[in-house]
Amino acid sequence: MPLVVFCGLPYSGKSRRAEELRGALAAEGRAVHVVDDAAVLGTEDATVYRDSAREKALRGALRAAVERRLSRHDVVILDSLNYIKGFRYELYCLARAARTPLCLVYCIRPGGLSWGPRVADAADNQGQNVSVSWKPRTEERERPLAAGSSVLREPQTVDFVVSGRTQADVPKELEQEETKAPDLPAFVTPDKSAKRVSSAFYPPELMEALTLRFEAPDSRNRWDRPLFTLVGLEEPLPLAEIRAALFENQAPPPHQSTQSQPLASGSFLHQLDQVTSQVLAGLMEAQKSAVPGDLLKLPGTTEHLQFTRPLTMAELSRLRRQFISYTKMHPNNENLPQLANMFLQYLSQSLH
Fold first, then answer.
1. What is the maximum span of the chain, computed from C-alpha positions, in angstroms?
2. Span 289-321, pLDDT tens digits
3. Inter-residue contact 21 to 236 (CB < 8 Å)
4. Which helix (H) or strand (E) segment is 104 a member of?
5. Which residues pair with 162 in a beta bridge?
6. Which end of the chain is more exposed for a tag (fewer CB within 10 A), N or C?
């Protein structure tokens, strides 16, 4: 069944959205598995993202947990930062190998513009089911706020682009924001209805580092589409579009290099080698009495080879090796009676 990947910085509402989606799918009778940092680590720990080695181990554990749960019957939701596009590509390859659809939900925190990465231009996301981009008109503050400080924010004008249409949202009053260390933003404050809400505290310096490292999704990349971009928690989750992307779209086709070879009998290669050797021996014998323009006929075959010039054994052996290499890539027991005719056709096309 499909894989849903949530992407975004901390405090962007990913866990709330994941729980909302899990509840909606579970109400339809679907089996849903949620994989997050706490499920892998035992408890959510923000300090993991300070150490590259620990973070790499976390990504490997998340990938393994998703791979174990991917099946044709269950929906898997990955609730983590997923800010590295290379890791999102690995998840795309997992879904493609499992022959199951995938979609990406990108969550953005509108209240902390200086901490959140900017979304790609709305033109990049046109044609998607849900596409939202925000662009601040006023100059953003570059330095994060220290814990325990109180700042009076000036009104900001933000353009929201939803499915190609622009709306202006201008706050009418000045807003007092307390940024004490133990307090989370208002829109990610845990409530009784939410079962999975981030409880780890991310210091301002870590938030700034994650913002600099963040690689925003781009719907032009095949591993980032279909892309659903959501700003804050006030906007409703596009359940209908997500259902269509997960249950009505076809899964991406797997690479041929990752597929198992079709079953063939144990004697296929032996018969292939024997038949091609007999054809070469028959051609070398038949061309001894042939003149240019004759059709060389071999016993047990319906195909003929036009004789235009004397053929050397070295030249025929090289073409035989090429034919064997190609046939081994596509073995088929049904072709055994026609191997001699197929080899003669290959020789006729290669020599003329």
1. 103
2. 888 888 888 877 888 888 888 889 999 999 999
3. no
4. strand 102-108
5. 132, 165
6. C
